[in-house]
# Entry
Amino acid sequence: VESVNCNLYCFFLVEFNEDLSAFHGPTLESEAAYTSQAISYVLSLYPPNTPIIIMAHSMGGIVATSLLPDPRIAAIITMSTPHTLPPARFDRRIADIYSSSLKSVALDQTPILSLCGGATDMMIPSESCVLPEGPGAGYRKTVFTTSLEGCWTGVGHQVMVWCHQVRWRVARAALELGAVSTTLQRIAVL
# Structure
């Protein structure tokens, strides 16, 4: 866990060094366990009931949603995350993680925004990025980069994290999310 120096907002990064979690359930499970512990550590540095916003790319979005329900998580923004179908099913544990995560996403009230690259993302099919909705689910929104104001094209899988038009909007949303305190306000930001 690495901290980025800040005055009003602090950002912490979790990097798994390109682990092949899309192909190996135990790796995905260990990433989720590590992330949960990292969140506990980070929040121990702040006053009680400080919420956290998670931004995740690719399988990091599955790690994030697998942590639900968690009252510490105020909102989740995923980028190029295959929410409905794993990229590969080499291992039964991947199917179990997806099944559990989909149940949590369908029932939990945490606002979630999924950004999808669309047809230019050659690694993750567009259909798998769509957030499933459930009867008890909170705010769920799937947005393709072509519909982002100022971003006029789809983006590739890795491009999602460095494309200026996408990055600028994600950064703005993160700052705005950090400035509000209720679920309804977070939904309005997203």
In short: Confidence is low (pLDDT under 50) at residues 2-7.
